[in-house]
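Predict structure. Chain length: 257.
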Amino acid sequence: MLFRSERMRGRIRELHRDRQGNFEGRRSQLDEEMIALLESNILHCNAIDETLGRFAEAYGNQTKDEAALALESYEQAVRDFFQSCDQIAARARSEQPLCPRCASLGPEPICPKCQVDRLTPDPDFAEEEFEQTLVNEEYAAVFQAYSAILEGRGTLAELSQALQPLEFTLLEAQALVEQTAEESPEDAVIQELMKSINRGLEGVERMHAVEQNRSTKELNQGWSQVFRSASVLSQLLPALSAAGQDHDDEDDDENEE
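Prediction complete.
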């Protein structure tokens, strides 16, 4: 019993240190309500540690009444801790737009304190490694603007500016591939390129639409489409260029004959 109690205290102390460190690193950015929620959570975490210590001491001294009181206090501390965890999780699942920097809620689309866009959270988002597959500077600019929004450093207006050059490039690529498709309508590479370009354009449009729907989920899914389009284009465009070069060489040979 005492061994299990000390092992639990070790895990609780580690959790307390992690949460305290993360909180102190962001305290100056957060709004007062979020600060209060996190402080409460950390206090309840500390209370679990303290009540476990009192229980272990009373149990070791075979003081049954004190051990029973300590156990009751421990159970209450656990209930309070999980209740505060639920309150923090509810903020992360809010259906109201909140600031990605300070986590404040409010009717204003732009957070008055941080001057960034408030968006409804995406609690199911799993961060992926995107940077390695970006094919050109236009994708990189969109990724940087997108990341800045998630980190509470950028705005949707800045993202919209970054999206415009990429959208223009994709529309140019769409026109060129459509022209090539007229000559080789059954070519699998061309068909896959068309699908990828259209997917990228859909993603761009989805990211633009966040200015109206204020949805981080839509923002994430739009970027995911743009990124996957970039991944395919980076693999297939060289093949299309090589095929085009071979076609040009054949024409030159025929002209020489």
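Summary: The CA atoms of residues 185 and 191 lie 8 Å apart.
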